[in-house]
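Let us work through a complete example step by step.
Step 1: write down the sequence.
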Amino acid sequence: MLFFERFVPEHIWQRLRPDAIYVWENEEVRKRLKWYYLVMVDRVPARFLLAKIVEVGEKELEKLDEKTLLDLREKSAKEHRGLVDKALKEQYLLEDYIVDRRGLRDIVSLLDLDVEIIKRMFKPCRLCERRCLVDRSKRLGACRLDEKTYVHSWFHHLGEEAPLVPSGTIFYGGCNFTCVFCQNYDISQKYPRSGDIVTPRELARIQHELRVMGARNINHVGGEPTPSLHTIIESFKYLDTNVPQIWNSNMYMTEPVTRVLTDVIDLWLPDFKYGNDKCAFRLSSVRSYFSIVSRNHVIAAKEGDMIIRHLVLPGHVDCCSKPIMRWIANNLPRDRILVNIMDQYRPENLVARYPKRWPELARPVYRDEVEEVMAYAAKLGILYEPVSR
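Step 2: predict the structure and record it as tokens.
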């Protein structure tokens, strides 16, 4: 019996797309998403669980300065990577973790260290590369959020990429981008603080419920999850349920944040929006986009499984889509990643209200534009078809 038949409730199972079931018969998908698959079927422990059993050797983290914390994390992460490598070879299984965890409950762990690092980077806020340096307990940051974490919805998402469905999706309010065409602008820009305020313990409960009711993963999305990372990472301290963690992000984090995330994220689901900084600033009001996002893709791809999302924008094939595909082919391990070339663009948000300001975006994307990008990706040896939605 398949994992999905054993754990997915009947009312969800009956609504699953056929490709969500049969995608795992594709050998390339199984190879490229091996770690994610092993965690998904409860064969090996998720990365955040492994981070709980790596002892850092310091008892009072709050007394250490930020640089010392980061150096200590780099040292401890090597042991963590060793455990991940053993698990990937199926030499360290979930049952081994359960035994080890019983004897290591009182240690100061890599996860504790990561929580402390993110707390430091939260005040003043340097979680993303906007580096607004705001104390969000006193005023709003560039992400339009205070210090609280707002969850607008959480449910079993049946419309994600085939290997992810049903995905335990958590939508957080707020975003560090101001995309003029944002399809979730109501929670990212307009009403980011209208969701339910959640504590780390409550967020852990949400993740547990999603998993035990049949989710293949926990999918942190928004808006953008980065501004809520202080709550997300602390929630892992209270979550003992084995479940793959997905980071569904615009990837505009600072480098230390990206490296901390490699300790807890099993599958990266990054957006790669723009092929140049000019389009990024004009359409999302962010600077130095390409160098920052490409840097974080490289860091993430070395540490976990990855499905890159690229939304084809009308009129942006040559300036954005093709440069992104070339960069992926030249800088990431093409035999280990998957790419989802997306055709869902439609005029939304400011583009829908003021179409003359962004005339090329005031129409849906043409089918021949999407096919041109797909053909270009195929020519470069990029695999994208098995994850189509």
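Step 3: interpret the result. The chain has a mean pLDDT of 95.
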